[in-house]
Amino acid sequence: MSAVLPGVKKIAVLRPNAVGDFVFALPALHALRASYPGADIVYIGRRWHADFLAGRPGPVDRVVVIPPVPGVGVAADAKVDGDAVDAFVAAMVAERFDLAIQAFGGGRFSNPFIMRLGARRTVGLQVAGAGDLDLTVPYGSMCNSRLQLLEVAACAGARAWHFGRPELAVTDADRLAAAQVLPAALPKPLVLLQPGATDPRRRWPAARFAELGDALAGAGALVAINGSEDEAPLVHAVASAMRAPSIDLAGKLALGGLCGVLERCALLVSNDTGPLHLALAVGTPGVGIYWLTNLIESGPLRQHGHRAAVSVRLHCPVCGAENLSTRCAHDVSFVDDVGTARVRACALELMQAMEGINCCVASGIVP
């Protein structure tokens, strides 16, 4: 761990990526906030970051939206508006950052970009051949992303932060959005199923989610099924295959509303995708269905509210190609060998365990 940099008034953090990737950075962002409580922490991200974090308490003070930059959020050979990029860089130089942190990949393109911002000190991830920053952490593709980013924060002088509180705040606006799709009073514990994922290889079959939903409904839960508008056919497939009634939330929730729903859930069962990591960040227990490499890279740091159902399949079920070091062309599920009984056991165990923890908290046994 490096010493806290004196006189830090403004910190830039470059990480313009997706929902789960943002959640992975939250421990590092909280650690930076703890070490630099008076600094202005500026997150360089995408439009969705600005929308989602506006008015949300947390370690980020404000978001600036980066334009498309080759190799930084868009393909390295993408045609972009060079004048817009230059104008953005000039605006960032004028901010006079004391510390700029590159938290977006190995740095082949992002390190040269972060150096253009003119910060007093630069820190970040680095692969061989990437531009040199003042302090770097070797970038590895098969390691826990949260821990890797905490190492970067430590290089910037950050200390560990308290792990006993939620990483992401739920706002009144989130709760109001959730109230539009859920009854004011829930008759049973609410369990949310998330059958979608951007990568088809991470998707557990819809029929298994339906079996699980019926099992959890039989155990006394009220089941809801979430997905984006594009995932509506998948959500409908799960709901129509269930014998028990369910709440269909497909396309009805923006990210904030999803956080509001998650706050009211007793449990989320999900593929390895953004809503799983949002749930864990707001403090909702979650069962994740993972391919083994995904668990290595995206597993949460706190385990008391998390259980993992893992496929250890290495080879494509279609062509037999090993998919650890390379990726074959087949978009088939790599987690369909995870049995319903395993996921059901994880879900019931976690719900019972969290009831015990909540009892301990209420009685003052656990701080």
From TrEMBL:
It holds the Pfam family Glyco_transf_9. One of its GO terms (cellular component) is cytosol. It comes from the Bacteria. The lineage of its organism: Bacteria, Pseudomonadati, Pseudomonadota, Betaproteobacteria, Burkholderiales. The keyword Chloroplast does not apply. Keywords: Glycosyltransferase, Transferase. GO terms for biological process: lipopolysaccharide core region biosynthetic process. Gene3D superfamilies: Glycogen Phosphorylase B. GO terms for molecular function: ADP-heptose-lipopolysaccharide heptosyltransferase activity. This is Glycosyltransferase family 9 protein. InterPro entries: Glyco_trans_9 (IPR002201), LPS_LOS_Heptosyltrfase (IPR051199). It comes from Massilia glaciei.
